[in-house]
């Protein structure tokens, strides 16, 4: 309890204010912003205008999450359209293994919604291609790219997450074995610091390169460990996930409890996607642990987005603390994930 109180102190002021304010209808806010995301959807290409290939996977994931949360949503046709248009390019469209991981998780979510085997089949194909990137260069782990230039956190976290998700849906021991193997390597890789923050990757000597602690590296691992806990019936993974989550909250939030990456404006279309990925995965960890601090964090960020970081058309910008500047499919879908995450825990 003492440790929990310590971590809650930086957020306490905003939480007290949120309790005194009128109740937020997070589901309604998420519904409005999900509809607004379709402003960027290209029916002909199946992806989202003005953003990248992997970002479109996150847009699709956000819509799938919304569909799962709100049965009145109508995004199943969008998922189907994107799948059919791109069904022959999933393992060839990109030279990066992390891109494959984002799409694999998107289609696993589509499978959860529809139980249509075609979505799970593609996720398995993507995983098999990712597994080809396993290297002995640093005694394990997968490469970030097919040119084999970098071993980093995000590709390996996604590989773990996809394996664990598939393990808990197919009950094929192959996926559980891969998930355990990946985690055993990742935990000892040096990318997780003694403070439970995760740096971007490894240098040429297979040592922690000390690069930026990004919110999405702190986030993907949470969902991965939740799924690994389910697949292995081992709650010890949740203990590690909680430590990593709290380290991120302590390191990456401002005095009002709002999440930031160390570089936001002017950092390109990748960074603008990161924060929502953290919140999405933190909501999964909250469901597994019922840690009240996580719920408070999610609600605080959703409130700040709705109050400070949207325009009159419910389009959501980059800086969740405000002021609103402009939005694109990446900034919007990232913030939308935070609204959906808050909606998913409201009332729990």
TrEMBL record:
Pfam family, one: Glyco_hydro_76
InterPro entries, alphabetized: 6-hairpin_glycosidase_sf, Glyco_hydro_76, MUG_Protein
The keyword Signal belongs to this UniProt entry's keyword annotation: yes
Sample GO molecular function, one term: hydrolase activity
Keywords carried by this UniProt record: Hydrolase, Signal
Record's signal peptide: 1-20
GO biological process: carbohydrate metabolic process
Name of this chain's protein: Putative glycosyl hydrolase
Native organism: Aureobasidium namibiae CBS 147.97
């Amino acid at each position: 309890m003492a440790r929990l109180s310590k971590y809650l102190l930086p957020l306490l002021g905003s939480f007290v204010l949120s309790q005194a304010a009128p109740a937020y209808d997070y589901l309604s806010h998420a519904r409005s912003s999900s509809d607004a995301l379709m402003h960027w959807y290209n029916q002909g290409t199946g992806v989202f205008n003005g953003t990248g290939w992997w970002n479109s996977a996150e847009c699709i994931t956000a819509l799938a999450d919304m569909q799962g949360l709100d049965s009145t949503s109508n995004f199943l046709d969008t998922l189907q359209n994107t799948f059919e248009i791109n069904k022959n390019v999933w393992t060839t469209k990109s030279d990066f293994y992390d891109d494959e991981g984002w799409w694999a998780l998107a289609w696993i979510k589509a499978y959860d919604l529809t139980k249509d085997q075609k979505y799970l089949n593609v996720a398995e194909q993507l995983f098999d291609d990712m597994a080809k990137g396993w290297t002995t260069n640093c005694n394990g782990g997968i490469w970030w790219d097919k040119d084999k230039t970098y071993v980093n956190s995000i590709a390996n976290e996604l590989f773990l997450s996809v394996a664990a998700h598939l393990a808990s849906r197919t009950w094929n021991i192959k996926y559980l074995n891969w998930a355990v193997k990946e985690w055993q390597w990742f935990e000892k890789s040096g990318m997780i610091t003694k403070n439970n923050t995760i740096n971007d990757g490894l240098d040429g000597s297979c040592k922690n390169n000390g690069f930026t602690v990004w919110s999405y590296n702190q986030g993907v691992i949470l969902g991965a460990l939740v799924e690994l806990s389910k697949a292995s019936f081992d709650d010890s993974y949740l203990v590690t996930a909680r430590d990593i989550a709290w380290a991120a909250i302590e390191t990456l939030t401002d005095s009002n409890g709002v999440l930031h990456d160390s570089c936001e404006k002017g950092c390109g279309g990748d960074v603008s996607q990161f924060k929502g990925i953290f919140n999405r995965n933190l909501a999964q960890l909250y469901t597994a642990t019922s840690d009240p601090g996580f719920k408070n964090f999610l609600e605080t960020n959703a409130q700040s987005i709705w109050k400070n970081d949207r325009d009159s058309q419910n389009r959501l910008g980059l800086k969740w603390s405000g002021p609103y500047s402009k939005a694109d499919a990446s900034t919007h879908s990232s913030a939308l994930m935070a609204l959906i995450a808050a909606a998913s825990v409201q009332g729990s």
